[in-house]
Write a structure and sequence with these properties.
Length: about 180
Amino acid sequence: TDALVLNTRYEHARDTVYEAHDRKWAKRSAQLQLKPTPPVLRFTYAYALPPNFARIANVSEYDTMEPLMDESGWDISDGEFLTDAGYAFMEYVAKDWSEAKWPAYFADCVALKLAEISCLKITHSEALKNILMDRFNKTVLPQARSIDSTSQPAKRHLVRSEWQRARLSNRSFSNLRRN
């Protein structure tokens, strides 16, 4: 059925739109957690990416986020953040926001992307798919990027490990930024 087609393609459409732009309203911050096994090649450290990670906004070795790491100083491979930095702090776009918190322009992008990727299966019309793809790429996505770029960022939420939460619960010294 058409509903099943839409349901099976929904997450792909949503994730594609999250990953398409550095969305101010969907950002979170985290100190990345060091993985026990180092990378095989090139870099010294491997860190776990935050839950529901969509894309990097900024990354730094310091919790002040200054200076930012140059793109040549890190890589993402096999779902890990690889670097030579002994610490890694990241501002990133998270893809686990409730639909109720989505701005209207983002919801419109997801709806149009879902229509585009479901179109052939439902309508069997290559022409309609091309119209939807063109509208998404040339009108709706650029407009959403423009609106998002000029809007105020959402409050950032620092994702902490269980160890960090336990350590900070007694109000002790912390090298982490508190938002």
